[in-house]
């Protein structure tokens, strides 16, 4: 058990929130590791690694085209809406950074701004030829041309296993300044995200886990609440805003 450093005073100004697949579960998007989760329907090596993409690009493009198309059939849930409310009403009281491991756009569709997608986004395309990024809503299986260089080399702008997540410096800077770190709907199975709680705690932040059930990293949090995000998150946002 990591010795909890002296928690800084309880004035909460700077908040970092990490969300994972669990916050989108009640919107109907499969999580990765829950029973029947995304990986059980596909071997990770085949659809979420650079090697898998090199081996069978069509399989990978179809996998992400299916997940992109599914976005139009789901809606943000009460947890996404509560974080968007916190994003609006925290203005002027301190800083709020929402870091998500999710590649869906439900935080944005609920109204949250400045969401940091550390694993990329389904609605963005990355050109494997010139590294340009562009918003993308169609199907990549048709091998559309990159708008910047014209090559038919677009790949999902999603961070695969073994690739570096995005904007890590910015995330660690925010964790170092955080007074409160909240993890919502993530299994704590995958690094570097699974280590953010220790990073925040080492700088004196309070730490809270909101998850359906204990995660692999639960023991690293000062406080945990277990239940559906759609119930826990709105209640927690009401608490924080009424402090
Ligand atoms: P990692 O090595 O820390 O991954 C460890 C965990 O990831 C494992 O405990 C397991 O839960 C899962 N994992 C990794 N490889 C797996 C495999 N072949 N089969 C099943 N589970 C596997 O993380 P990494 O591999 O260095 O990945 C680097 C980054 O890429 C991480 O931030 C990861 O979250 C991200 N990523 C994103 C996606 C996506 O679809 N957005 C998919 C995979 C990885
Ligand atoms: N409310 C709150 N938490 C939930 C809910 C819910 N309704 N449903 C599921 N959960 C929790 C599960 O208990 C689990 O801890 O969400 C977590 C989902 O964990 P994963 O499926 O592992 O998803 P995630 O933690 O986001 O995976 C991290 O791994 O495969 C890579 O890059 C991929 O971003 C993904 C990363």
TrEMBL record:
<feature type="binding site">
    <location>
        <begin position="20"/>
        <end position="39"/>
    </location>
    <ligand>
        <name>NAD(+)</name>
    </ligand>
</feature>
<dbReference type="InterPro" id="IPR027546">
    <property type="entry name" value="Sirtuin_class_III"/>
</dbReference>
<dbReference type="InterPro" id="IPR029035">
    <property type="entry name" value="DHS-like_NAD/FAD-binding_dom"/>
</dbReference>
<comment type="function">
    <text>NAD-dependent lysine deacetylase and desuccinylase that specifically removes acetyl and succinyl groups on target proteins. Modulates the activities of several proteins which are inactive in their acylated form.</text>
</comment>
<feature type="active site" description="Proton acceptor">
    <location>
        <position position="119"/>
    </location>
</feature>
<keyword id="KW-0808">Transferase</keyword>
<feature type="binding site">
    <location>
        <position position="149"/>
    </location>
    <ligand>
        <name>Zn(2+)</name>
    </ligand>
</feature>
<feature type="binding site">
    <location>
        <begin position="185"/>
        <end position="187"/>
    </location>
    <ligand>
        <name>NAD(+)</name>
    </ligand>
</feature>
<dbReference type="InterPro" id="IPR026590">
    <property type="entry name" value="Ssirtuin_cat_dom"/>
</dbReference>
<feature type="binding site">
    <location>
        <position position="64"/>
    </location>
    <ligand>
        <name>substrate</name>
    </ligand>
</feature>
<keyword id="KW-0520">NAD</keyword>
<feature type="binding site">
    <location>
        <position position="146"/>
    </location>
    <ligand>
        <name>Zn(2+)</name>
    </ligand>
</feature>
<protein>
    <recommendedName>
        <fullName>NAD-dependent protein deacylase</fullName>
        <ecNumber>2.3.1.286</ecNumber>
    </recommendedName>
</protein>
<keyword id="KW-0862">Zinc</keyword>
<keyword id="KW-0479">Metal-binding</keyword>
<keyword id="KW-0963">Cytoplasm</keyword>
<feature type="binding site">
    <location>
        <begin position="211"/>
        <end position="213"/>
    </location>
    <ligand>
        <name>NAD(+)</name>
    </ligand>
</feature>
<feature type="binding site">
    <location>
        <position position="229"/>
    </location>
    <ligand>
        <name>NAD(+)</name>
    </ligand>
</feature>
<dbReference type="InterPro" id="IPR050134">
    <property type="entry name" value="NAD-dep_sirtuin_deacylases"/>
</dbReference>
<dbReference type="Pfam" id="PF02146">
    <property type="entry name" value="SIR2"/>
</dbReference>
<dbReference type="InterPro" id="IPR026591">
    <property type="entry name" value="Sirtuin_cat_small_dom_sf"/>
</dbReference>
<feature type="domain" description="Deacetylase sirtuin-type">
    <location>
        <begin position="1"/>
        <end position="243"/>
    </location>
</feature>
<feature type="binding site">
    <location>
        <begin position="101"/>
        <end position="104"/>
    </location>
    <ligand>
        <name>NAD(+)</name>
    </ligand>
</feature>
<feature type="binding site">
    <location>
        <position position="127"/>
    </location>
    <ligand>
        <name>Zn(2+)</name>
    </ligand>
</feature>
<dbReference type="InterPro" id="IPR003000">
    <property type="entry name" value="Sirtuin"/>
</dbReference>
<feature type="binding site">
    <location>
        <position position="67"/>
    </location>
    <ligand>
        <name>substrate</name>
    </ligand>
</feature>
<comment type="similarity">
    <text>Belongs to the sirtuin family. Class III subfamily.</text>
</comment>
<feature type="binding site">
    <location>
        <position position="130"/>
    </location>
    <ligand>
        <name>Zn(2+)</name>
    </ligand>
</feature>
């Amino acid at each position: 058990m990591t010795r909890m450093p002296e928690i800084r005073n309880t004035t909460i100004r700077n908040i970092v929130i990490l969300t994972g697949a669990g916050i989108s579960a009640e919107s109907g998007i499969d999580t990765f590791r829950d029973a029947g989760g995304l990986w059980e329907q596909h071997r990770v090596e085949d659809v979420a690694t650079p090697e898998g993409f090199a081996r069978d690009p069509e399989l990978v493009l179809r996998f992400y085209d299916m997940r992109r198309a599914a976005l139009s059939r789901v809606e943000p849930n009460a947890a996404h809406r509560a974080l968007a409310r916190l994003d609006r009403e925290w203005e002027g009281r301190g800083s709020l950074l929402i870091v998500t491991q999710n590649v869906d756009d439900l935080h944005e569709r609920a109204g949250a701004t400045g969401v940091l997608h550390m694993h990329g986004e389904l609605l963005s395309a990355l050109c494997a030829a010139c590294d340009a990024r562009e918003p993308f809503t169609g199907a990549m299986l048709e091998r559309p041309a990159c708008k910047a260089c014209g090559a038919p080399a677009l790949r999902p702008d999603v961070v695969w296993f073994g690739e570096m997540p995005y904007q890590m410096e910015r995330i660690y800077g925010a964790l170092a300044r955080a007074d409160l770190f909240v993890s919502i709907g993530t299994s704590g199975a995958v690094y570097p995200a699974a280590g953010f709680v220790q990073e925040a705690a080492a700088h004196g932040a309070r730490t809270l886990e909101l998850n359906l059930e204990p995660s692999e990293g639960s023991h690293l949090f000062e406080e945990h609440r277990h239940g559906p995000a759609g119930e826990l998150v709105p209640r927690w946002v009401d608490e924080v805003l009424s402090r």
